[in-house]
Amino acid sequence: MAVATRTPFRGLVAFSLTELRVQLHESTSIVTSLIVQVVLLLFVAILARDLLPVALFGGILFSMFALGQRVQNEAAFVRIDHKLNELYLAGPLTPEAYFLGMSLGVLGAYLAPIGVLVAVTVVVAGMSATTALVLLGACAGVWMFASSFGYFVSTLFRDMRTIWPYASIFYNLFGVLPPVFYPLGFWPAPLLPVALAMPPSAAAALVQSTIGWATLSPWEVAFATTALMVEGFGMFLFTIYWARRTVREDS
Amino acid sequence: MTAEALLARGVQKTYSSRRAPTVEALAGVSLVVHPGERVALLGRNGAGKTTFLKIASTLLRPTGGTVEVFGHDVAARPDDVRPMIAVVPQEGKPFFHLTPREQVYTYLRARGYDAKEAKSRTEDALRQMGLTEVADRLSITLSGGQRQRTMVATVIATEAPLLFLDEPTIGMDPFARRAVWDSLRTLTRRGSTILLTTHYLDEAEALSQRLYIIERGRVLVDGTAASLKQEVGGSLRVSIAGGERLAEAAATFGSVLNDGETLHVITTPERLPELMGLAVREHLTATVGPVTLEEAFLRVVGRSIDTEE
To answer: Given B61, B90, B96, which is nearest A251 (Cβ)?
Structure first.
């Protein structure tokens, strides 16, 4: 007989590596994860070549945002089809380690294609140390929000098919439509606060401001930064709470 | 751990929804599982077995009553209970993109075993479940039975103090089922306790030291397979196809059950020739066999275990 002990985030590293292995076995998904970004970049390269640097940085941020959709699909599939959440959660692995481990595993698996995109951006657009730091912070905020939100959404459905349309609407509405791939200046001025409040476009605005493609007042920079941090950390903390609460399927 | 492995008192579970009628899944289930025992919950589909198992394994909240695992209340202190349990979920599947070896090993690592111990336990569990030859194939390429064996291997490798197995051998061939039974017997010899649900009567009989028959959210009876069979009232079952018209006469030979097509008479070896003679005179086919748990189940529940709610 073996009794395990249980502490917060116990099993996090091991479960992250489990999820990483799962994802790495799905190499096709990893290889094809840049399709939307590449298609949009091609459009930009053909139609407005001078906007390519903006679109490249946007592509990196969109890639981080799209990880949320992958977490959402994985968490839903594992729960609804495999019922593996029951195997893992009725045991020493904590709910927070389960959620975060899944998110980190997905992140780890998709770092390679995102790295390729970063490399292309460096070659095509160049990247100063300041820009790199801002990009890193923006990516962290977007990832934290998107992965947490994806996990949260995954718990709301009982059938995989009903999730897909919502996922598509959400990721196009928040990732493609707002000024992520194109300059903030093209976005209607009265709706600027909306763009600065949504995590992907807030992150894009901060990066565009750093590389000189958007002119933001100090107040607008503060607003976008605060929005990204509050939404990223807020969603993360809420999802930690939610993951614990939804261990019981009737909670 | 001196307390009972599992102690349930008056467990109730009602599902309420605005969109669907209220369902009373459990209506006051009380049962006990002693440390080191193998106990089966036997019942038809929808009887409440899985609901009970989910409550006991901290995955559902009871509407009423209490369940304690080694003295810890599963509703009030789930974090104390979870390290002591391991669960094979009903219709659970391993990660499709992990091999059985990876599935078992990574699960043990996530439970806190060091690499060496996890590796050793993994190989042992794979061997016990007859998975060695397919241990490095992705689970998506395995048969349903092999996937189920992977799930069982994952859980038995933990040797957790209390194991819950919800229909553990579903989809397995007879050899694999026996391998699972052997492994579970070994586990209890080593000190683990097992509560399993099944609707395979032979599994309940072969594997469990005690069993509870559940019907419509209630425990109807509990005991050993032998004691339940004894209560049927005879050692032989005579099944007379199309023998409904003989029901009255057959009742003088022992207890009679009619499933609509066949008349089943539980009788003693002494009365057998006379009863067979009755069937022959009516030109009906009669078969004789020993009383099994099926008759005990029929007597208690009034319906075959295979009939749907």
So the answer is: B61
